[in-house]
Design brief:
2 domains; mainly alpha; binds glutathione; 8 helices; Glutathione S-transferase Yfyf (Class Pi), Chain A, domain 2; Glutaredoxin; globular
Length: about 220
Amino acid sequence: MTLTALEEIGEPFETRLIAFMAGEHRRPAYLAVNPSGKVPALDTGSGVVTQNGSILLYLARTRPDAGLLPLTGEPLQESAIVSALFRFSSDLHPLVTRFVLPGMMLCSNDAAPQVREKAEELLLQQLHPIDAQLDAQPWVLGGNWSILDSYLAWIWFRITGAGFDHGIFPAIATHYERAGERPSARAALAHEKRAMAELVRRGLSFTPPRLKTEN
Ligand SMILES: N[C@@H](CCC(=O)N[C@@H](CS)C(=O)NCC(=O)O)C(=O)O
């Protein structure tokens, strides 16, 4: 979603690939950028911004013309936006990592299938109310697109790409198609695909363990 936000802004930027399977996020070079070892981090030229929610707020505030978030300065209205950001970055994002890369969590490889199954159960719980909401309105915040739609689309792209059943939540699946039609989303996907191709070329792609429900 950071890539989509940068594409929406439309100014040139550079990306650097951090290969988890090679442990690059734990190496000194990356820890000097983000000591928590989490991706993404945005180097603004005047300082590094970390945490997805913070990066998206930073970009929305510094480039209000890009229309990333409808920030009005009204505390209650803004708290609803920040709440949705935290919901995606704190509640859902860690489940995505556990579902897609369960072996990266602090467990033996033998425990990876159980980590993934628990993550699937919690994803089902968390996504259920979002699917109901999107049945009643086209975008996460109501009638207009925001960068939160890109965050949700990223979550869906990652988990369905790793075997999550996309038939369970039809409204989120339709929202994903709609969100993917934006030129910024297509450009961000092209970045992702180039990164995946690079990982495959380096022998660092990852196949998640199968769920009981997968054939
Ligand atoms: N709360 C962080 C979570 C980011 C996060 O978990 N990113 C994943 C990649 S999608 C990561 O860096 N995983 C490495 C790890 O958890 O060690 C944020 O919103 O930026």
